[in-house]
Design a protein that fits this description.
The complex is a heterodimer of chains A (472) and B (284).
Chain A (H helix, E strand, L loop, with lengths): L17 H4 L12 H8 L9 H4 L7 H10 L2 H11 L3 H7 L21 H15 L13 E5 L3 H11 L4 E5 L8 H4 L8 H13 L3 E3 L10 H6 L4 E4 L3 E4 L12 E3 H8 L18 E5 L3 H12 L4 E6 L10 H10 L2 E4 L1 E8 L14 E14 L5 E5 L5 E4 L2 E4 L3 E3 L31 E3 L2 H4 L4 H20 L2
Parallel strand pairs in A: 1-2, 1-4, 2-3, 4-16, 6-14, 7-8, 7-14, 8-9
Antiparallel strand pairs in A: 5-15, 10-11, 11-12, 11-13
Helix pairs in contact in A: 2-4, 2-7, 4-5, 5-7, 6-7, 8-16, 12-13, 13-14
Chain B lengths: L1 E10 L2 E7 L1 H6 L5 E5 L7 E9 L4 E7 L3 H7 L6 E2 L1 E6 L10 E7 L3 H13 L3 E8 L8 H7 L2 E6 L6 E2 L3 H9 L6 E5 L2 H11 L6 E4 L15 E6 L2 E6 H4 L2 E3 L5 H8 L3 H19 L1
Helix pairs in contact in B: 2-9, 3-4, 5-6, 6-8
The chains are: A alpha/beta (472), B alpha/beta (284).
Chain lengths: 472, 284
């Protein structure tokens, strides 16, 4: 085998030119070639204590799969990843690796950590384009499990149980499976064909997916048990978008990030002749600093906005988005207005003509500058308003991206399901809720978080469900 | 895919359909709505349930042809399929304990008001209905309202059928004469619901309005359907899809709701014309 690659820098990710990609919805990062993947794999020291594995919410055997890449056995690498992850092509693209596996990598001490996420993506893409083999359809073990929601936690839970022979049915409220992977994360970051492929793989392994079924409305959790299911996993996600409660949030041109992204991604408003409209406007202010805010800002840019601001009340250091997304956004020309917060959205109002069609549309935003004060309970420095620092910017669209609260539909129709003050379902370490046989995980439990932590929760629950039902 | 089992033209712009969707039919109650997509890549539109046939597993919808999607839907025939049909969504109208009710429907809103009149009539409540239309040609559901109402007032804007004037005219007359209702339930254009609320205000009768704002998912995810209520001097944001669609009329900010309902009017007009032209081409 070739010698270890001791370059302090990782192999660069080939990407579309920022000037070009700012105007299209094609994927930004293009993925490693086989040569680059092997070269990058050679940077892995194969540490015996495997610190990276502890940084992974689903504990993928990282040095082992990288070892297979070193040998050029990409399918072998895929088999190792798929023992732990049901959605490798997705995770390789959307995980915040720099805060997880890669943050633990020994190579990161003197230089850049191994590009673990990039290698995971390479392996999954290689498998998807080379492997013709359909996943084995296991004989049923006679137990039926229902999964509510087909987002990352639900798909993972379903996939893990199907691998053990359970008859799994996934109920999805929308018309297509994938949850936040299809309505939230944009095409240029996670192509929908990849999600469809992962869902298709699950279907081939025996998972049934029923769309247009809203649990809490079309069916209740109790009725699911009456239908013969022995356990239920709730992965319904974080629903209701939060707003700031400042004046002007109901003006025309103010979106929640959920609405803006759903219109563009799920309903394909970015295509030339869409049936679902979206405002294609000049100057856009996106309020918030998370991954969703980055997605919304970069989507607005691709829809033709001439200027897009990210409005965030802390500094770049505290900005919670995945680092690569922030870098991409900056390269594409998104302007980061940091240490400031909106106080009012101002609408157009023609005093001489109440029928002026522009009336009621967004015209400007009032902001106040902030400085960082004492750390709060979580150790993040609290932003404090600077008195007298108010100013205005001209904009015509606002996208509020300041988080979501768990969807109330299931809680309100399921007796005995306990939730916390913020509406999140209360679960044990194993994912069990206050109702016997009912498990939950993902954003429905934690409030808005990451794809991989939701997958971790789906995995934990699948393990617990198997333990409960196999003991019967 | 969901099959259209019946189709009826109620007037030149209003169509009634029965859609086969047994799980929805089993659950739907008056006041709730469904979300449908006509074809792959269509938009999602909310329509209020106009009735159910639990035995046949069908749900009745009545819709006005106003935009691209309702036009496409109106061109579907009995036996054709639509792509998606999900529900029932929203909270059902609260009709328990109502003994004497005035139901006010405007235009296609009468399609939503009718099952409420029916439910109240069947529960033994005294139902007074006022239904209003622009003219005689647009009148719908007259027979149904006659059979479910103890008293029925039909109003037309131009006087081409029964009485001329707005629905608020007979309401005001009744309230002035000292008629006492437990509740007024009104469904129709926002401007009509606003004026019904204003007419009732001096008499202190509770008013329930049914809001039908722009929606996408209908399950409390996108926030597009938000409206503002004035509750005890505070402005509160609510989502019509999960908190409604019924709201206390005295609390609703109608002017804001009317403004928001016009957010995409340019786009809609354009899309509607495109769709019409498309069908013209197919005919030629």
């Amino acid at each position: 085998m070739a010698k270890a690659n001791m370059s302090p820098e990782r192999n660069p990710m080939p990407s579309q030119d920022p000037k070009v990609r700012a105007h299209n919805f094609d994927e930004v990062a293009l993925g490693y070639s086989e040569e680059a993947a092997i070269d990058e794999a050679m940077r892995c020291l194969g540490c015996k204590n495997m610190p990276c594995v502890n940084g992974c919410p689903v504990n993928i055997r990282i040095p082992d799969f990288i070892g297979e890449i070193k040998k050029g056995d990409f399918e072998g690498a895929y088999q190792i990843i798929s023992e732990s992850s049901s959605l490798p092509a997705v995770c390789g693209r959307v995980c915040p690796q720099e805060k997880q596996c890669e943050s633990e990598c020994v190579r990161g001490i003197k230089g850049e950590s191994v590009g673990i996420g990039r290698l995971e993506r390479f392996v999954a893409d290689w498998h998807n384009s080379h492997s013709k083999e359909a996943p084995a359809l296991l004989p049923s073990n006679g137990h039926k499990v229902a999964v509510i929601g087909s987002g990352p936690s639900g798909l993972t839970c379903a996939g893990d149980l199907a691998k053990k022979g359970y008859e799994v049915t996934v109920f999805e409220a929308l018309h297509v499976a994938g949850g936040v992977l299809v309505y939230g994360i944009p095409e240029f970051r996670l192509p929908k064909a990849i999600v469809a492929k992962e869902v298709d793989t699950l279907k081939k392994s025996g998972v049934k997916i029923e769309t247009n079924i809203i649990i809490g409305k079309t069916l209740t959790v109790d009725e699911i048990f009456d239908m013969g299911f022995e356990a239920v996993f709730i992965g319904s996600g974080a629903g209701l978008p939060n707003f700031m409660g400042i004046p002007g949030e109901s003006l025309k041109g103010v979106y929640s990030a959920n609405e803006f992204l759903t219109r563009s991604n799920l309903m394909k408003a970015y295509l030339d002749n869409p049936t679902t409209p979206i405002m294609k406007t000049g100057k856009v202010a996106v309020v918030g600093g998370g991954n969703v805010a980055m997605d919304a800002a970069r989507t607005a840019l691709r829809l033709g906005a001439e200027k897009v601001y990210i409005i965030y009340r802390r500094s770049m250091e505290e900005l919670p988005a995945r680092r690569e997304e922030v870098e991409h956004a900056i390269e594409e020309g998104i302007e980061f207005s940091l240490l400031c917060a909106p106080t009012e959205i101002i609408g157009y109002n023609n005093p001489d003509d109440p029928r002026d069609p522009k009336n009621g549309f967004v015209k400007a935003m009032k902001l106040v500058k902030m400085e960082l004060g004492e750390p709060d309970a979580r150790g993040r420095r609290r932003p404090v308003e600077i008195e007298g620092s108010e100013y205005e910017i001209d904009i015509d669209t606002v996208i509020m991206s300041i988080g979501t609260s768990p969807n109330p539909l299931i809680k309100s129709t399921t007796d005995g399901l306990e939730v916390n003050a913020r509406g999140g379902i209360i679960v044990t370490e194993e994912g069990l809720t206050s109702r016997k046989g009912v498990y939950a995980g993902g954003d429905a439990v934690t409030g808005a978080a990451t794809v991989i932590s939701a997958m971790g929760a789906g995995k934990t629950a699948a393990y617990a469900i198997d333990k409960e039902l196999s003991a019967k | 895919m969901y099959r259209i089992t019946e189709k009826k033209i109620l007037n030149p712009t209003v169509v009634e359909m029965q859609i086969e969707a047994p799980p929805v039919a089993k659950k739907a109650l008056p006041g709730q709505f469904i979300i449908l997509r006509t074809d792959e890549n269509s938009e999602r539109i909310p329509l209020t349930v106009a009735g159910t046939d639990k035995e046949n597993g069908t749900v009745k919808i009545i819709f006005q042809v106003v935009g691209a999607t309702t036009t496409a839907l109106s061109f579907k025939e009995k036996g054709d399929y639509i792509e998606d049909f999900a529900g029932p969504l929203g909270i059902a109208s609260k009709l328990d304990e109502l003994k004497k009710v005035c139901i006010i429907g405007g235009g296609v809103g009468c399609a939503i008001a009718m099952p409420i009149a029916e439910a109240l009539h069947n529960s033994g409540a005294e139902v007074t209905s006022i239904i209003g239309f622009r003219n005689k040609d647009l009148l719908i559901l007259e027979d149904e309202f006659r059979s479910f109402s103890d008293k029925l007032h039909i109003m037309t804007d131009d006087g081409s059928y029964e009485r001329q004037g707005n629905v608020t005219v007979p309401l005001k007359e009744m309230l002035e004469k000292g008629e006492k209702f437990d509740e007024i339930i009104t469904i129709g254009p926002l401007i009509m619901m606003k004026f019904v609320t204003e007419t009732a205000r001096p008499y202190g009768v509770p008013v329930t309005v049914s809001m039908n704002p722009i929606m996408i998912d209908g399950t409390g995810m996108c926030g597009g359907c938000r409206l503002t209520l004035n509750v005890d001097g505070k402005r509160v944001t609510k989502f019509a899809c999960v908190d409604g669609p019924d709201f206390n009329g005295y609390e609703v900010d109608f002017d804001e709701a009317m403004s928001r309902s016009r957010m995409y009017s340019d786009f809609e007009r354009h899309a509607y014309e495109e769709t019409c032209n498309l069908y013209k081409k197919e005919v030629n």
